[in-house]
Amino acid sequence: MATRTQAREAVIGMLYAYDLGNDHIMQAARSMLEEKKIRHKQQDFAYALLQGVITNLSEIDKHIMPHLKEWDFARLGGIERAVLRLGAYEILYTQTDTPVIINEAIELGKHYGGEENAPRFINGVLDTLSKAYKKAKKDSVAKGNL
């Protein structure tokens, strides 16, 4: 049985393919997950992540960009961009604990990132995004907007 980490790995691959122009990735997602032996609850988990990222892509990118410092989002490696998008989606739209999300993203960065600095970069971006999101959420609650 597949783990959530394996499900996330599959999602990273599909997000990478989507970023390269495979606009029909959602139609192929279930069969791709089956091929990777990701089934049942983990398949539903992976599919929900993929669908969530693609559906909210522009909003996710808006949340990521301010935390890139001097990096240009378009010039990031495709895998790093996919890992950041998945991590940001989970931080912004799911109930998964932030340390778990960031740790999974770091491990994916170590495994798939093109350079040794990718895990540190991913950690820094997701950590600052998480803190900014928590602060904005706290401020919104304090103002009675949530």
Let me know the largest β-sheet: none
Number of DSSP helical runs: 7
CATH topology: N-utilizing Substance Protein B Homolog, Chain A
Shape assignment: globular
What's the CATH architecture? Orthogonal Bundle
Name the CATH superfamily classification.
NusB-like
Order of helices and strands: HHHHHHH
Number of domains: 1
Quote the distance from N terminus to C terminus. 39 Å
Mean pLDDT over the full residue set:
92
Structural class: mainly alpha
In percent, how helical is the residue content?
over 70%
Care to describe what's here?
The protein has seven helices and no strands. The model has no long low-confidence stretch (mean pLDDT 92). The protein is mainly alpha-helical. The protein has a single domain, classed as N-utilizing Substance Protein B Homolog, Chain A, CATH 1.10.940.10. The radius of gyration is 15 Å and the shape is globular.
